[in-house]
């Protein structure tokens, strides 16, 4: 006999997991409040929802896609009610005594909620000249644009959201592919085919309901980069731009447009063929060595956009996140980290990628952005 638990979750929010153990396989379902029922707290055992479509999650020794649930899988299930009392959910527990929940009813304003969420960030960055409330205010008032919601941009976006940035501009026209699973934060079985920016917006708003999210559904290309940076982002008052593009030509054009329009920029190199997150660093783009994507981008900046490299090299004031690790050779693709090639640039290329490297790229980029905002060191790019 299998057991199916119906949960009375009056006052609870979010998704709960329910498992049916059966003959070597586990079927995971989402549980959501029954909005069609007049009885508060009723739950439906349903497949995860995506744009009105119901899609199942499936874990099996031999997964089948799309997965199918046998018609008799839920027959003869015994319903076992589980009671979660309101007292448990609203009890005022002392966090310093190990309590897990706190009573939010006593909070008087949105500012209180913001402090509860992000006060730890303020305390981390405060100093004698910049107390905690000043740090939080600077982050809350900041607008950061992220170009590319892939393996690095998705992690950057969430890190900035969880750091208390008040306004994020997400720029991409790509949709989620199942092959993104190994490296991109947003990718789940339930949202394959959805727009990356849309999924990230919903995720970030769930983290901080008061964040302001602007979506630009477009790829940044040579023929529209000035429109995006010089028009759209300028109107939005972007303080810093994070470049997570994986093409050197578009990357160079974007950086040049930022220089032309006085937009501080943090750029990222290629995580392809890298598996050691401890070797990821952030330096001025002129000082980067061992990253084929950034080398090709730098060459294009000097040849096509009048950026200067000479013996007495002045910094370009472009923070670049990259790995000092050499590219891991593979049978699928042989490439040197200093030899530009299409496969070595594209984050989904034959060299391979892994989330703890792409995630670290994104986190280092986010840390640099937060530092620039807190220190009010929003230096504009220079051509040297």
What would you say this structure looks like, in words?
This protein has helices at residues 86-90, 110-125, 132-141, 153-161, 196-207, 225-236, 248-261, 292-304, 342-345, 355-374, and strands at residues 3-8, 16-22, 25-33, 43-46, 48-50, 53-55, 78-83, 143-147, 167-171, 212-216, 240-243, 265-268, 280-284, 319-323. It is an alpha/beta fold. The chain has 2 domains: 3-90, no CATH class; 142-374, 3-Layer(aba) Sandwich (Rossmann fold), CATH 3.40.50. The strands form 4 sheets. The protein has a 7-stranded mixed beta sheet with strand order 10-9-8-11-12-14-13, with helices on both faces. Strand 11 (240-243), helix 7 (248-261) and strand 12 (265-268) form a beta-alpha-beta unit.
Number of domains: 2
According to CATH, the fold-level topology of the largest domain is Rossmann fold
The share of residues in extended strands comes to: 15-25%
Mean pLDDT: 77
**Helix/strand-derived class?**
alpha/beta
Span of the ends, CA to CA: 73 Å
Residue share in helix: 25-40%
Element-level helix/strand string? EEEEEEEHHHEHEHEHEHEEHEHH
The CATH class of the largest domain is Alpha Beta
Q: Give the C-alpha Rg.
A: 24 Å
Note the total helix count: 10
CATH superfamily of the largest domain: NAD(P)-binding Rossmann-like Domain
Q: What's the β-strand tally?
A: 14
| Envelope shape | globular
Which properties best describe this structure?
about 375 residues, alpha/beta, Rossmann fold, 2 domains, seven-stranded mixed beta sheet, 10 helices, about 30% helix, disordered N terminus
